[in-house]
Amino acid sequence: MNDLRGYFLSELTTDRFAELVKWKAPLAVLVPVGSVEPHGPHLSLAADTLISKAVALRAVPKLQPKVTALIAPSVDYGVTDCAAGFAGAISIPPAVLTPLLRAIVDGFLESGVAHVCLINNHLEPAHDRAVHDAIKGYVRSRASVASPLSPRWGRTLSDEFKRGECHAGRYETSILLAYDKRYVDEAARAKLPDVPISLSDKLKEGVSRFADMGLERAYSGSPASATAAEGEALLDKLARMVAVEVLEAMALSVDEGEDEGGK
User: Fold this and answer.
1) Which residues pair with 252 in a beta bridge?
2) In angstroms, what CA-CA distances link 46 with 42, 78, 247?
3) C-beta separation of 15 from 102 below 8 A
4) What angle separates helix 47-63 from helix 228-249, to the nearest 10 degrees?
5) Terminal-to-terminal C-alpha distance of the chain
6) Positions of E strands within the chain
7) Could you tell me if residue 262 is left (phi over 0), alpha (psi between -120 and 50 degrees) or otherwise beta?
8) pLDDT exceeds cutoff 60 at 21
9) What does the alpha-carbon distance between residue 45 and residue 184 come to, in Å, rounded to a whole number?
10) Which of 194, 213, 215 is nearest to 202 (CA)?
11) pLDDT band for position 27 (cuts 50, 70, 90)
12) For the chain, percent helix, then strand, then coil, each to nearest 5?
């Protein structure tokens, strides 16, 4: 598994998967979690899922050789109540999402996988709680969640992210430019004015919907200032987040400099 081939579970046969379960290094499965949600006039409705996939792909080499890692098919739908009223907001309730994710984790563990990590980049609080609820009750070595909503990791990210002005703004747009610019409408995003509205502040004030927050076009932050270079740096930080969460949960050593988030 020293190139991109074999990273994705969707590319494996049953025999190859069975071999990896018995491989000398323990097998971890990374499950990208996202949403179908408006991300302004310039980003894909699947932006959050795409970011989770990009992060998973960058995390695999950081886990090797201590862990053999596979990227599972993604969970593409989530709790998207904040975006209600905008075209393309497809929401499922937490009571559906949590057992779905838990069943996926159960299935992989029962198949012989050593660890399952849910990688979440849809940052609506109710959605993130539903993702964390899916691993409640598991022994820590068996399941984890990697999410930038954790203060440990959020503080390592960009200033825009820390301000909460990061829905389809510079933060997410930069990441998608680095991952695959086909998911960014460059002509549209170049014309977009800054929207300096903090979602985190609005949520603390009890305002829960984008429309009521003043996000007239379903974005906040500064998408026009996004760059692929910043996206590369952010992807590296998010991939490090995944690697540390998995290695620590599995009681494996974390290389010096890997744990930027601290404890």
Assistant:
1) none
2) 12, 11, 28
3) no
4) 60
5) 31
6) 27-33, 68-71, 115-120, 143-146
7) left
8) yes
9) 11
10) 213
11) very high
12) 45, 15, 40
75 strand-pairing partners:
33
Q: What is the DSSP letter of 218?
A: S
Listing DSSP states for 41-62 in one string gives BTB-TTHHHHHHHHHHHHHHHH
Q: What was the pLDDT predicted at 24?
A: 87
Is residue 245 within 8 A of residue 132, CB to CB? The reply is: no
Mean pLDDT of 133-153: 97
Structure tokens at 223: 């998408």
Answer whether residue 3 shows pLDDT above 70. Answer: no
For CA atoms 96, 102, 108, 111, the dihedral sign is negative
Rounded to whole angstroms, the Cα distance separating 130 from 222 reads: 29
Q: What is the pLDDT of residue 46?
A: 98
Taking the C-alpha atoms of residue 230 and residue 175, their distance in angstroms, rounded to an integer, is 7
Sort 3 into a burial class: Cβ within 10 Å, 0-12 / 13-18 / 19+.
Answer: exposed
Residue 254 structure tokens: 């974390």
Residue (of 115, 176, 103) closest to 145 by Cα position: 115
The C-alpha atoms of residue 75 and residue 192 are separated, in whole angstroms, by 30
pLDDT tens sequence across 149-161: 999 999 999 999 9
Report the amino acid identity of residue 23.
W
The residue count of the chain comes to: 263
Give Cα separations from 208 to 181, 194, 205 (angstroms).
30, 21, 9
> What residue segments make up the domains of the chain, in order of their start?
9-249
Residue with tokens 């952010």: 234
CATH number of 9-249: 3.40.50.10310
What pLDDT shows up at residue 2?
A: 41
pTM above 0.90, yes or no: yes
